[in-house]
Amino acid sequence: MSPVTIELDNISFQLQQEHRFDWLEELGTVFTVFDQQDSGNISFGIIKHGIKRFVKYAGAQTLEYHGDPQDAIENLKRAMPIYEDLKHEHLITLVDHFEAQEGYAAIFEWVEGECLHPHWSFPPPAKYDNPNSPFYRYRQLPIDVRLSSLDRIFSFHVNVEKMGYVAVDFYDGSILYDFDSDMTKICDIDLYQNRPFTNNMGRHWGSSRFMSPEEFEYGAVIDHTTNVFNMGAVAFALIGGELDRSFTKWEAGIALYNIAVKAIDPNRNHRFTSVSEFYAAWKYART
């Protein structure tokens, strides 16, 4: 089946089939679209009376999604209480959510920032070596700036843990960075779950670059210790060699390196017992 081109306010994108977006008109003017996700969602930047909003919508058959749009709708609905429970200064702010014609929509405050894993515009290896790539530019920032960025990521996940949740599918594509204000925001926490839960999938949702061994093991417990691994993997992605976790690729000194190595120990019993403990050790090592 040939793709169908849709045009909204002079912004064009393609879907697998026709879909109505009349409901968007009263929200404002579309100025950008994010249509390359494989989650079943399509997102829009809209503006009305000078105020920008980010609109995430499920129900359309996007090019990269090969599932049932109804499943995407249910997943988006299920995510709404997660954003409400985990409300935090470093998380994008949910404004509203509602049924929208053939699907479901969630409205968020607009964040000026760039995704650190823009696979649609800078697929690897361009992500790592193109000077225009947000990830490449982020990695050129001074180490103290990146450590402050990590502080925001870690403090948010301390809150995630406190609220009884586990981070699922958190990776550099969930991080927005504003190079003008040095602001870091977390987005796309739709798959976070109450802890603990059992891995009933085998290979779980997520990027393998950030996943613990238990996220590949059917029947394994996914809990706060899994979150610790995830935070250590994030540290290696942003100030180390990502999957090359040798000290030679690390930019932040031996004390923080040892903490990150402990966090990503394949044996969960050797990791920190919680994200709170991990972050406390991390902050102490920075003093």
Automatic annotation (TrEMBL):
<protein>
    <submittedName>
        <fullName>Serine/threonine protein kinase</fullName>
    </submittedName>
</protein>
<dbReference type="GO" id="GO:0004674">
    <property type="term" value="F:protein serine/threonine kinase activity"/>
</dbReference>
<dbReference type="InterPro" id="IPR000719">
    <property type="entry name" value="Prot_kinase_dom"/>
</dbReference>
<keyword id="KW-0418">Kinase</keyword>
<keyword id="KW-0723">Serine/threonine-protein kinase</keyword>
<feature type="domain" description="Protein kinase">
    <location>
        <begin position="33"/>
        <end position="287"/>
    </location>
</feature>
<dbReference type="InterPro" id="IPR011009">
    <property type="entry name" value="Kinase-like_dom_sf"/>
</dbReference>
<keyword id="KW-0808">Transferase</keyword>
